[in-house]
């Protein structure tokens, strides 16, 4: 069947507590009933349990899609062989995975890394780096190293930094400057370790609310200290600011950010605010609870 206005079906693991998109309904396999009930209550929508969800998954998805044309629904407990979370649509020829907002943002950085380096301040984030009170030689995992400006300052202060990024263009940029850098996608890859701290400057703001808890849990397994910056506010947006291509930004209130940190094994030790050109920022130092 070719759906002129198909449903968008968000396939999620059972431990998700936040969803960025507007959702019309939650469906869950019976073994994910408790998780489905929590998510449905949080979103203020109905929950439907599907005992046979894993029997003929494509048939079940088609039936759900037929009921929710033009809407987005969540399905928990279904494995189509995709890395979760995943957003899928029916195109008429089968189920197609839709690129996530983070993947589209990474594509922007791949195409415009040099433009980004030219437009952002050359100075590192001294406010965030100053929150780290580590001994010389401390091992720091940097997520989203980008142009590499923060890592240079971290090393100047005596820390041993593992530079990583999910964007090949930034990795090549860092290597051209004479440093080692590893490809690491914070959403999908294991962090390794142990480290003394995880550092992420202006990285988490590109992650959908449903995805950030998983990243924070991995960070808690990797290190006892987490330092990061993110945009303060409410909602989310696509923006072409500074660059000619779109990037996705998710803003957090302090209360919501503290809640998700607590739920993922962190305690906020320091939170400072700083002004940016387009938004206010929170600089956060958290310790493993």
From TrEMBL:
Keywords: Methyltransferase, Transferase. InterPro entries: SAM-dependent_MTases_sf (IPR029063). This is SAM-dependent methyltransferase. It comes from Kribbella sandramycini. The keyword Thylakoid does not apply. The keyword S-adenosyl-L-methionine does not apply. One of its GO terms (biological process) is methylation. One of its GO terms (molecular function) is methyltransferase activity. SUPFAM superfamilies: S-adenosyl-L-methionine-dependent methyltransferases. It comes from the Bacteria.
């Amino acid at each position: 069947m070719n759906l002129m206005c198909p449903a968008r079906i968000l396939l999620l693991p059972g431990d998700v507590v936040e969803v960025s998109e507007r959702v019309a309904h939650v469906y869950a396999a019976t073994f994910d009933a408790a998780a489905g009930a929590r998510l449905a209550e949080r979103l203020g929508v109905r929950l439907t349990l599907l005992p046979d969800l894993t029997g003929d998954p494509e048939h079940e998805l088609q039936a759900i899609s037929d009921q929710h044309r033009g809407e987005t629904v969540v399905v928990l407990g279904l494995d189509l062989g995709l890395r979760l979370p995943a957003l899928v649509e029916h195109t008429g020829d089968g189920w197609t995975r839709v690129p996530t907002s983070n993947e589209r943002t990474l594509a922007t950085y791949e195409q415009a890394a040099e433009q980004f380096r030219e437009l952002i301040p050359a100075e590192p984030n001294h406010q965030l780096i100053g929150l780290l009170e580590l001994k010389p030689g401390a091992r720091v995992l940097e997520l989203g190293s980008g142009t590499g400006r923060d890592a240079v300052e971290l090393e100047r202060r005596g820390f041993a930094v593992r530079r990583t990024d999910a964007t090949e263009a930034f990795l090549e940029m860092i290597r051209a400057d004479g440093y080692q850098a590893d490809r690491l996608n914070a959403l999908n890859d294991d962090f390794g370790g142990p480290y003394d701290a995880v550092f992420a400057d202006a990285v988490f703001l590109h992650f959908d609310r449903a995805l950030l808890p998983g990243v924070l849990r991995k960070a808690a397994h990797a290190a006892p200290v987490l330092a990061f910056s993110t945009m303060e506010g409410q909602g989310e947006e696509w923006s072409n600011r500074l660059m000619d291509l779109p990037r996705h930004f998710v803003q957090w209130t302090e209360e919501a950010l503290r809640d998700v940190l607590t739920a993922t094994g962190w305690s906020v030790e320091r939170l400072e605010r700083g002004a940016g050109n387009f938004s206010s920022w929170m600089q956060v130092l958290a310790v493993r609870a």
